[in-house]
Amino acid sequence: MSSLFPALADGPPERIALRFGERSLTYARLAAATGALADRIAGHRRVAVWATAELETAVAVVAALEAGIAAVPLNPKSGEKELGHILSDSAPGLVLAAPGDELPDALKDLERVDVDVRATGAHRPTETSDEDPALVVYTSGTTGPPKGAVLPRRAVARTLDALADAWQWTGDDVLVHGLPLFHVHGLVLGILGPLRRGGSVRHLGRFSPEGVARELGDGATMLFGVPTMYHRLAQALPEDPQLARAMGSARLLVSGSAALPVHDHERIAEATGRRVIERYGMTETLMNTSIRADGEARPGTVGVPLPGVELRLVEEDGTPIAAYDGETVGEIQVRGPNLFTEYLNRPDATRDAFTADGWFRTGDMAVRDPDGYVRIVGRKATDLIKSGGYKIGAGEIENALLEHPGVREAAVTGEPDADLGERIVAWVVPADPEKPPTVEELADHVARRLAPHKRPRVVHHLDALPRNDMGKIMKRALSHG
Prior knowledge:
Elements: H1 7-10, E1 16-20, E2 23-26, H2 27-41, E3 46-50, H3 55-66, E4 70-74, H4 80-90, E5 95-97, E6 112-114, E7 133-139, E8 147-152, H5 153-167, E9 174-177, H6 184-197, E10 200-203, H7 209-216, E11 222-225, H8 227-236, H9 241-249, E12 252-255, H10 262-272, E13 276-282, E14 286-290, E15 304-305, E16 310-314, E17 330-335, E18 342-343, H11 347-353, E19 360-368, E20 374-379, E21 384-387, E22 390-393, H12 394-402, E23 407-417, E24 421-430, H13 439-449, E25 458-461
Helix pairs in contact: 2-3, 5-6, 7-9, 8-10
Domain AMP-dependent synthetase/ligase: 9-344
InterPro entries: AMP-bd_C, AMP-bd_C_sf, AMP-binding_CS, AMP-dep_synth/lig_dom, ANL_N_sf
Keywords: Ligase
C-alpha cells in the first residue's frame, strides 16, 4: 500500500498542514519532520504516543504510519493501572512525546524519543500492505481492562475516502476542532483526515465558542465536535452574533461520539441557518454511516451507510430484520473494509465480536427508516429497556425530555419492575434547581410526544450527569440507590 498521505510528497509544499495555536507546519515542514522521525524509529513493530493535544502528537503518529509502524495513542489522563495494562498488552518499543512533557512512572522503563517538529529528514514512506496495523486504539470496556482494537491501514484509508465522498471533503477544506487526540474522532478523522486530503487542520487546544468563532470567521470550512461542545455553542449563540455568522459561513458542521439532542440541532439551525450533521462510528469500525453533504440533514439520525459499508439490524436471536419501518428496534451489525482486524492478544473476544459470516456485532440498537436513514436509540447493554412487552430505546426518550423547558440534561435507564419487567427511569438536571419538573409533568410530556408506554415512571434530580472525556454519559455510574 502506498502512503496514506500523498500530499506529503506531492502536495502544495507551502500550504499549512497543521496548526496548533501559534505553532504550525507546512506540508514541506511536516514531510521533513516526519521523515526524520520515521528514520529514528525504523525497525520497531509498535510505538506508544503520549497523545497530548499538541503538534508533536500529530507528527509522531504520521511518522509512525509513514514508517509502517503501528502507533498506540496513550490518553494522558489515564491512571497508572490502565497505562500499565496498555503497555504490557501492546509492548511498544518506544514512547514518543513532546520535549518537556512529564511522563508518569508507568512509562519510566520505556525508551523515550522526543519529537522534534523542526527536524529535517527525507520523506521515504515504507512499503506496506493493506492489512498491516496502523493503530492500536484501546477501548474503554464496561467490564474488564480496555481492549486494544487493531486498526489496519486499509480501514483508515477506506474510512477517510468514504467520508470524502459523503462530505465532499477536499484539499481546499480547513477543519477546526478541539478534540482529544487519543480517540478515533480527534486523531483519525480530525488529524489524519485533513492530511489524507491534502487540506489543513487547526486545533483549538481547549475548545471554546470564542475559538470556534475566530477560526470559522477566518476561513475554516468545517467544524468537528461532540454534543457537549455543540450544546455550549447553542447556549452561546443567542448572545454572540459573531459566532452565529461564523458558524453560518461553515461548509460543514459535524457532530459525533454521542447523539446530539434534537433541541440543540434546532437552536443551532435557527441561529445560524446551518444544520449540524451526524455520523456514526466506533473504535472497532471507524465510520459506518453519515448524513451526506448532498443529503437531507435529518435531526436525530446518523444518515445512511458510507460507501463500502454493509449495515443490517438483527433481532435478539440474530435474525435480520427484513423490512425497515422506522419503528422496529434491532442491533446494528456491520461488515466492510472499515473494520478492525482483531482485539490484540484477545482471540476469544475477537471471535465473539463477529458472526460466523463476518458481521461485527456493534451492541448499538437502532431503527431504520424505509429510505435507509438510521436512528440510534442506545446501547444494547445500557439503553435497551424492555417494558410491558415493548422494546424501547433510551435515546428517543432522552430527546423528548430535553424538549421540556424545565430540563437542562437528561439520561434514561431501566430498572427491574415486577409488573412491567423494567420501568423507565429518568435522571434529570433541572434548568432551575429551585423548581425541578415533577415526574407527572415529565411523564405527560413524553407520553404526548412519543407514546404512553415510553413515559418515565421514576425521576431523579441531579446537579450534573457523569460524563467521560468524549462527553458520553456514563450510565453505569448512575445509581438507583
